[in-house]
Write a structure and sequence with these properties.
six-stranded parallel sheet, 17% strand, 15 helices, alpha/beta, globular
């Protein structure tokens, strides 16, 4: 029996509940309490803290850190993180999110942390920005990798990009996100709950298209809404589109829905805890993202046997298993989303075939057990 536990401190910028936060929660709660002493340092007072507390995982606040970059505030955040590292004396710091990666890797080096791991949940230089911003962000990402002792990437495209960082090639490891088997509501119950949440029945006699995503520009939700508006009028009468999630783009999306006169077809029920439980309500899952790592929402939709329409960004081709599939299109192409939506709406046989293929692919390649074993191997090396 190991007398000394390995002390791991997970760090993330925001305590909302997005992909990086889910990644931390799943890993932190799965590690053996006999072998690991685990804590999580994060900014804000979001849902992640509540979920960690439920799992009896200690949290450490970082008062000054947030997503926006402000020079003097970053200095304060850096000092807070450095002080936490000096006080906690972790054997491993596992950094998540781009901002935390940069600040945390430098603080870890100064504090003398032996193992500094950074997980890139999609490189930020792939976001839609001007070339100058992209260049600066690429350099910041390179410095983060350089200062870290290990870098985990979660998809093939990010792995190829990371291997091009000078002096960093041997640090890079590809570990796909994985999910546990989960139960979800049947169609009738899921639709009943969503109907109550929305305040009207969007399902009656209709094919339901669904998305689970933060209402953020990177998710490309406006292109999904535009695709719905481009469908022939008679097809529009046969469908509903429900986007589960909350975020900063709500007002803009609501305005777009009004402009396209889709109030009776597109619905934003807001945040719903453990949203994957409601996947059974949908006939088709649409994910029109502009920038991704390896999104849990798609893994869960595939596990729930849903046909998927999505975009060719980040690790999404890894999940779909065939990037030449006509149901994975270029980002920002509402017309292409409309085309493949129309085919799936009108062809149940194709929907059923995709459903089976997606579930088989997820169960074969993207299990949490594989992800956990590979991550622990890095912790112990």
């Amino acid at each position: 029996m190991n007398d000394k536990k390995t002390k791991i401190l997970y760090c993330v910028t925001k305590s909302v509940y997005g992909g990086a936060q889910k990644y931390i929660l799943e890993l932190a709660s799965a590690l053996s309490k006999e072998d690991f002493d685990v804590a999580v340092a994060t900014g804000g007072k979001g849902i992640l803290i509540d979920k960690l507390t439920e799992k009896e995982i200690r949290t450490i606040p970082i008062p000054s850190i947030d997503r926006d970059i402000k020079f003097f505030k970053e200095l304060k955040s850096f000092k807070e993180i450095l002080d936490i590292f000096k006080k906690e004396k972790p054997d491993i710091v596992h950094l998540n999110s781009s901002k935390m990666g940069g600040i945390g890797a430098l603080a870890g080096r100064i504090a003398g942390v032996k193992k500094i791991i950074f997980t890139a949940h999609g490189w930020p230089f792939n976001e839609n920005r001007n070339w100058l911003s992209k260049s600066a962000i690429w350099f910041a990402s390179f410095l983060t990798a350089l200062l870290s002792t290990d870098v985990i990437v979660i998809d093939e495209e990010d792995f190829k990009q990371a291997k091009k960082f000078p002096f960093c090639g041997k640090k890079i490891t590809l570990i796909h996100n994985g999910i546990k088997s989960f139960e979800f509501f049947g169609k009738e119950e899921a639709r009943k709950i969503l109907t109550e949440k929305i305040g009207q029945n969007p399902f009656k006699g209709k094919i339901s298209v669904g998305t689970i995503a933060e209402l953020h520009n990177n998710k490309g939700l406006k292109y999904g809404i535009e695709a719905i508006s481009m469908l022939p009028w008679e097809i529009q009468q046969k469908i509903s589109y429900i986007i589960i999630g909350e975020g900063e783009e709500r007002k803009d999306l609501e305005q777009l829905i009004r402009q396209r006169r889709l109030e009776d077809k597109v619905f934003l029920p807001g945040f719903m805890d453990d949203a994957k439980k409601y996947l059974g309500a949908f006939d088709i899952f649409m994910f029109p993202s502009l920038k991704e790592g390896l999104p849990y929402a798609l893994l869960e939709a595939g596990f729930a046997s849903l046909p998927i329409i999505t975009t060719k960004v980040g690790g999404i081709p890894d999940i779909i298993g065939d990037e030449k599939s006509e149901f994975i299109v270029e980002p920002k192409r509402s017309d292409e989303l409309e085309r493949v939506l129309l085919e799936l709406i009108e062809n149940k046989r194709v929907r059923d075939s995709l459903s089976k293929k997606n579930r088989e692919n997820i169960i074969a390649k993207f299990t949490f057990e594989k992800m956990l074993a590979k991550t622990i191997k890095i912790y112990k090396n």
